[in-house]
Amino acid sequence: MNEIIRNTQSAATSTSLDPQDWSAFRALAHRMLDEAIDGIANVRARPVWQPIPDQVRAAIKSEVPREASDLADVYREFAEHVAPYATGNVHPGFMGWVHGGGTAVGMLADMLAAGLNANLGGRDHMPIEVERQIVAWMRDLFAFPDSASGIFVTGTSMANLMAVLVARTAALGTLARQYGVGNDGALLTAYTSRAAHGCVSRAMDIAGLGTDALRKIDVDADHRVDVAALRAQIAVDREVGFKPFLVVASAGTVDIGAIDDLKAIAALCREEGIWFHVDGAFGALAILSPELAPQLDGIELADSIALDFHKWGQVPYDAGFLLVRDGEQHRQAFAQPAAYLSREARGLAAGAVWPCDLGPDLSRGFRALKTWFTLKTFGTDRLGAVIARSCALAKYLEARVLAEPRLELLSPVNLNIVCFRYRAGDAVNREIVADVQESGLAAPSSTTLDGKLAIRAAIVNHRTEERDIDALVAAVLTFGDRRSGGMIEVEAPPLAAQ
What we know:
By secondary structure, this protein is of the alpha/beta class. It has helices at residues 2-14, 22-41, 54-60, 71-81, 104-116, 126-141, 156-172, 175-179, 182-186, 198-206, 227-239, 262-272, 327-334, 367-403, 426-439, 466-484; strands at residues 149-153, 188-193, 214-217, 243-250, 275-279, 304-308, 320-324, 407-409, 417-422, 445-449, 452-458.
């Protein structure tokens, strides 16, 4: 018997994935960490983004790795073929999309979370208490009641989908989860603005209600939803027998960062008995800035709010969040009894509401830890100042555009997004965006406003400074002059820090 046990233990040891030489592993791990920190500390010394060479794409392709490889070799492949060709949003010159820059603090927290390897689907352990603490902080920030619930998700696209599902369950009752939406579900209608993010339409699709059930309301000159038109559409739908159940307002539209009149929409929804959801992917965290928070007046009246800590909160990807005013309605939309999820009075299976009762995921990573580290380390006052600073930089870019005859401002600057263009046609501006990106000097994106292609600069990164704005403007002018045949040459800024 002892021999059998010894053989079994030997076999178990041989299949362990732990390092055979912990000292060598530790040395390599320290090197990885040092080089990761160096990459952030010296980020200005490299391009914002660079095209991936064909040979690099080819080098990463291989057959299924049946045999083991040395960790150092795998890391070398990462360092040579992956790290240099990332999205670039760590760089202060990245302004293409609303991507946060992350922090070294968040990187370390992510490492610690991976070491714990905690599953936050449920059960009684401290990682869930950390998530619950952040839920409590969000309740406080947005003036929600103690009964409000919250949950970490991948991002606002998922949070918006979950909000649609909670609103759908509130409108149809919990039996709809068992029998389907039925005829009543076919009558449900939701409302948002034409400037809202496309994930709202996609959420209606995935929820089984159909994209045609989403009414896209016109916007005013400031790109905010026309509340009078919203009210009129709701009245028309009620008159013909539809059942309005949800309004999705935007706190920071995707194209220009506009904030809908949240207070007026809240009043309308309360009057009509409609669920009021706010898509605050990046804009909701303006609540951290005393200077910007008044623009969110009315968000505290929402039934639910979606936001991303990985945008203005500077938490490493991913860290989306959904906050729901009525925690019981939230739970009714997702909780599902199962023997293997039974709750006990004591032991590891103790506890009341588990995160798996508030969303579709049972297996969930410890996203809350990097958010907790970020909020605790920097504090909301400092994070709010970073947010206000990015808006001030947007105003600086706006002033640069208005002062330059070769450039044209295409929309009002509400928060941190500036849409402008070189005074030439769409084809030229499209090429300018690609030229600037491929130069490595800056990374704007593009969008279309009022039929014109716009160069879009979303200033989110806490590392961005005036010199990065200047680099963007100089690059746009340089490539614009070349593309349009202009005679003026503007010297592009050096790639490395000055």
